[in-house]
């Protein structure tokens, strides 16, 4: 299989020079002919495309010179002076002319392929439902306090984003990992939950500070309804629901939360679309793609909170003393 990396701009792009000499200096046993640059002067003149880096070069990487870090491998987008930008090979004009949306752009830039419309619609629904959850959650609170200190937009946004983690919005990846592992191993909900309990690990995607079994999260219900209507299979989501049924027998607040819903349903999206290999699915879950959805979505709300505080000309925030409890 040919290497996806190239020595410069992608095919059909004009050149300002050639990096072949840099490659051969790093790997003395590799010649310009090996790389595919048979007409070096033509590269220097800008008349030919950059060749791809041969796969065998990457066998040298573990012991290669640190200078190799000067190269900047990429796969998802292309752009050069005077040329139309492309996302995963799809020109900007095509994206606009086809009326594609943010979900389609995410499918190209994150997954390097055009996903079916129900998949990109699900991505867009996730973004809309997770954009904001009021001013009292940790992310919004941080952003509001920072904005009222009259910091700039980026500082206010980042202060809120930095709260995202295992306890706030950042459990989607872990929920997907644990649900996938348990389902694939054929564990019953009892075996899964009790096994996690013995390890001292809370089940990611289960539990909410406010929602209860008799007061479900509307976001979860909307996601489940869309998936049951449009997905070819919802086996991971149904397993998560079975886990929820068991955990609710323990406590009324151990409901499937939005992290668990997105995590399990994204597994169904990846598995049911037929566009990903098992290895690719494992890699996506391991890298942490799914938390990226929450980060992207919540950025919309945090930016809104920043603008809101500045528009209202709110003064510097100072927390009331009566809420402070000194302990020994």
TrEMBL record:
Xref: Gene3D superfamilies: Citrate Synthase, domain 1 (1.10.580.10), Cytochrome P450-Terp, domain 2 (1.10.230.10)
The organism's place on the tree of life at top rank: Eukaryota
GO molecular function annotations of the record: ATP citrate synthase activity
InterPro entries according to UniProt: Citrate_synth-like_lrg_a-sub, Citrate_synth-like_sm_a-sub, Citrate_synthase, Citrate_synthase_sf
Record-level GO BP terms: acetyl-CoA biosynthetic process; fatty acid biosynthetic process
Any Gene Ontology CC annotation: cytosol
Classification via CDD domains: CCL_ACL-C (cd06100)
SUPFAM superfamilies: Citrate synthase
The protein's name in its UniProt record: ATP citrate synthase
